Amino acid sequence: MSDFTQLLERSQAGDRQAADQLLPLIYGELRQVAAARLANEPPGVTLQATALVHEAWLRLMGSSQPPDFRGRGHFLAAAATVMRRILIDNARHRRTQKRGGHWTRQPLDSIAAPQQDDELLALDEALARLAEEDPLKARLVELRYFLGLTGDEAAAALGISPSAADRHWAYARAWLQTQVRGT
To answer: What single-letter DSSP state applies at residue 42?
Structure first.
């Protein structure tokens, strides 16, 4: 059993010291993933990778009784879902009429910047439909796209073979593309 898994089990049993030791073990990995996700955000987004990791950590472990994770893979899957929700919430927040609605900050050198918030929201809606049809494929997309895991890492986190993960990934990408772009 890995150090991470042991600390996770102790943390879930109520050991606050174990919870404090858990974050440094996973922080670097979560921060790299967050930075990669935020690199795709439109100009003017104020959310930083550190803030995304901290917000995700608080949502995952901040309650008096943390969720019952079944190991590192399950924890990473939950982290992917939480990061996705945070990014979606931020996109919705930026898009609201109360805060300027359709007005977006654009650099002068690229007046025709793509509307990435709309694309992210469309992806979220399509991913929710995929989760209704096939939760495993939706979870795989979250791990690969939102957490940045490789195919082998995502397969291990989901407890499936790498070849099955590759097949599911190919299907999910094609399915999502038809839902988001209508192609």
So the answer is: P
Distances 103 to 26, 43, 90, 96, 99 between C-alpha atoms, Å: 37, 12, 15, 10, 9
State the residue range of the domain holding 50: 3-103+114-181
Distance CA 26, CA 72 (A): 10
pTM: 0.57
76, 5 Cβ separation under 8 angstroms? no
Residue 62: closest CA among 45, 49, 38, 78: 78
Q: Tally the domains of the chain.
A: 1
Q: With respect to residue 109, please indicate whether it lies within any of the assigned structural domains.
A: no
Query: According to the model, what pLDDT value does residue 88 have?
Result: 86
Asked if the structure places residue 28 within a domain, the reply is yes
- pLDDT (tens digit per residue) in 97-153: 555 555 555 443 333 333 567 777 888 888 999 999 999 999 999 888 888 888 998
- What's the mean pLDDT when you consider all of the chain? 80
Angle between the N-to-C axes of helices 16-38 and 49-61, in degrees from 0 to 180, rounded to the nearest 10: 140
Residue 137 lies in a domain: yes
Give the separation between CA 112 and CA 83, rounded to whole angstroms: 28
User: Is 153 within a domain?
Assistant: yes
